[in-house]
Specification:
The protein is α+β, with helices and mostly antiparallel strands. It has helices at about 10-20, 25, 55-65, 75-80, 90-105, 115-120, 135-140, 170-185, 285-295, 300-305; strands at about 5-10, 30-35, 40-45, 150, 155-160, 190-195, 200, 210-215, 230-235, 240-245, 250, 255-260, 275-280, 315-320, 325-330. The longest helix has 18 residues, at about 170-185. It holds the Pfam family ApbE. Belongs to the ApbE family.
């Protein structure tokens, strides 16, 4: 359930190579590519001038072989298919543990066991979405639920063998964190990692200031990231993720709108007036999970959730009855707003 909602505001990177001879700026390197069905954009400042493209690509490939739901030979696919020789690795174990923590904290609004439902709705495929009947939902409900999976003695234990996990609502944020760990281990002080819109920043940008992230206006038809911005936020030493449904939706064969955010309680596409949720957290994975949860529970419950978590910062855009948009921000994010 990926979101293509955040666009990096990296004008300084475009300028540093031609506007300054400062050695700090000249050390910045940019690496772009494709991964996990989306794109990635990484900028880093290595005082040693190392070319880390190979290391970056190897980490992304290793992650794909571990937690990709689209890779038919990945560890996750093998576990979903009940391969008795498959064992959860460290990444799988950490993602499942973090997912369960967010699930419990949000009273089940975040749930990584919805893979069978996502497949039934045909979300993320080229096929026309199928809006499930209540009978179909009830038949699938018996093998969903985050409480029904655990790791015991190094094995994944499912309450029902038909259960299947999907970490897409946290995987790209987690991958950004893994990339950050690699940079930290290499002594790289300044970097920005963006994978499918999930962002992690450390240190300074090439202009010597904080990184800037543009949040797209959540209106249908705004399909080009950065073309119509809702706001610009400064960011460093934190993760940022925006989740929403204004781009990732389709219509079924009867013309019904099917969004990519599924409510684990009703097992239907979430329906409320929250258009997008931008969450800033200590890690990108945490931001990813809570942004998804906000898009499940809606505006008022998201406000309550954020009030319980002072370590989180939130920028919520919602629709009003007259068709205009309102914005709710937590007090701790207001200092980041550039415009």
């Amino acid at each position: 359930m990926k979101r293509f909602l955040s666009h990096l505001f990296l004008t300084g990177i475009l300028l540093y190579g031609v506007t300054s001879c400062d050695s700090r700026r000249a050390a910045y390197t940019t690496v772009d590519g494709f991964t996990q069905g989306s794109t990635y954009h990484i900028v880093y400042n290595d005082p040693q001038g190392r070319d880390l493209r190979t290391s970056i690509e190897e980490l992304l490939e290793d992650f794909d072989n571990s937690l990709s739901v689209y890779n038919p030979s990945s560890l996750l696919t093998r576990l979903n298919e009940n391969d008795t020789t498959a064992r959860p690795d460290a990444w799988f174990t950490e993602c499942l543990k973090l997912s369960r923590q967010i699930s419990e904290d949000t009273k089940g609004a975040f749930d990584v066991t919805l893979r069978p439902l996502i497949a039934a709705y045909r979300i993320g495929t080229e096929d026309t979405p199928h809006l499930l009947s209540q009978h179909e939902i009830d038949s699938i409900r018996v093998f969903t639920g985050y409480q029904k999976v655990r790791i015991d003695n190094g094995r994944l234990v499912k309450a029902d063998p038909r259960m299947a996990l999907d970490f897409n609502a946290i995987a790209q944020g987690y991958t950004a964190d893994l990339m950050g760990r690699m940079f930290d281990s290499l002594g790289i002080p300044d970097y920005m990692v963006e994978i499918g819109g999930e962002i992690l920043c450390r240190g300074k940008n090439p202009s010597g200031g904080e990184w800037r992230v543009g949040i797209d206006r959540p209106v249908e038809g705004n399909m080009v990231p950065g073309e119509d911005l809702q706001t610009i936020l400064t960011l460093t030493d934190r993760g940022l993720v925006t989740s929403g449904n204004y781009r990732k939706f389709a219509y079924d064969e009867n013309g019904n709108k099917v969004t990519h955010t599924i409510d684990p309680h009703t097992l239907r596409p979430a329906a409320h007036n929250l258009l997008s949720a931008t969450i800033i957290a200590p890690t990108s994975a945490v931001a990813d999970g809570y942004a998804t949860a906000c898009m499940v529970i809606g505006l008022e419950k998201s406000k309550e959730l954020l009030a319980r978590h002072p370590e989180l910062e939130g920028y919520l855009v919602y629709s009003l009855p007259d068709g205009s948009m309102g914005v709710y921000t937590t007090p701790n994010i207001q200092k980041r707003v550039v415009k």
